[in-house]
UniProtKB/TrEMBL annotation:
Protein name, UniProt field: DUF58 domain-containing protein
Membrane-spanning intervals of the chain: 12-28
InterPro entries: DUF58 (IPR002881), vWFA_dom_sf (IPR036465)
A Pfam family per the record: DUF58
Signal peptide (residue range): none
PANTHER family per record: BLL2464 PROTEIN, SLR2013 PROTEIN
DUF58 domain boundaries: 203-368
UniProt keyword terms in alphabetical order: Membrane, Transmembrane, Transmembrane helix
Amino acid sequence: MKFLKPIFLKNRVFYLLGFASLLFALGFSWPWLVYIGFITLATLFIGIAIDLQNSAKQAQFISISRKVPKHFSMSDFNEVKLLIKNTGSHSVSIRIIDELPLQFQKRDFEVLQKVESESSEVHTYSLKPLTRGEYVFHNTNVFFTGKFGLVEYRKTISAKQIVKVYPSFEQMRKFELMLFNTGHTQDGIRKTPRIGHGYEFGDIRQYVPGDDPRSINWKASSRVGHMMVNNYQEEKSQKVYAIIDKSRVMRMPFEGLSLMDYAINTSLTILNIALRNQDNVGLITFSKELESFIPAQRRNNQIQKILDSLYVQTEGEYESNFQGLYESLRTKVKSRSMLLLFTNFMSLNALQRALPELKRINRDHLLVVVFFENTELQKFKSNKVTNLFDIASQTMAQRLSEELDQVMYELQKVGIQTIKTKPEDLTANTINKYLELKSRGLM
């Protein structure tokens, strides 16, 4: 019975069968209708046979291949191409059902395409993955309909492909291009002028009005007979670590992504920018204990190592262990570094439990705590109240919002740099903070 599996009857077959059944039923009263019923059935079966032969013949001349990128970028639209080739002498209208990965949960995805004789067509569609991991594309099913529209014949093309979904490298490239190539402000990125000057010697050049007199090189000036100044440049090869909290507080969803997903995408972007800025970059992830550690380096394959590590990260079910984080940093990160800690504090009490360890970390390094503003809470505060329960709920929301503001104040009071941001503004705000701290020479 395998030969019947690719054959599907169209709706008009059942309409004609119903019509024939009606003729047979009426034949009890008008016998001549029975003959018309037999003629209808005979015509139907002949039409099915012709359609089946026609559609099966069309399938011999159609070939389809799927072209997907080597990797998908999470939370971005990724293009998939279907290359359709018709080697026959007649144009063909086909219906294509591509078996997408289960993660997309698309049950109604289909493509209607007409392919002219002896020609090729390319159909492009986009997919937006919202989770990291391996995505499996399965078969491509092509359906051919006969000229009478009675039968649909399915041709199954084996096209299993596995695609890895990485953190958003498209976002990484966009911000890299924006910051290093264009030189103008977009999406909230701003160039921060350097305050004072760096301490890394660059070269000696001739004095021009407006130069800092403290930079005058008197020995060089005496040799050439005119004023020369030392030219300093921004310090390079400093160490920058992205530290991602993988505890349960980072599982909160926002527009299809968890807070940890936002932190991962931003970590990849900021580390790539720091690497392009000739700093050494590394990665740390933790929850109950330290889970991933990539030492800060400036190598050609450093971003790929970070990508491969971020690709497999998942949120945990435990509380953040800041004591363990401090102990790990003390043994693994010996020199002073910029630490971008992506976490989330739900209340002032949560901060107070972690604050002693954060203060100890900040003594040895330049710590930047990045946590999230609860945008849903802000929306809820602006809702209209209609009863006593709404008033009580909004009062609690206002109190929680004030606690989160107090969290930022308590961190700044002890000298810890902070970023409180909406999830959608996380990348731009983090880049701006990095540029600001570099310009102020705080490392």
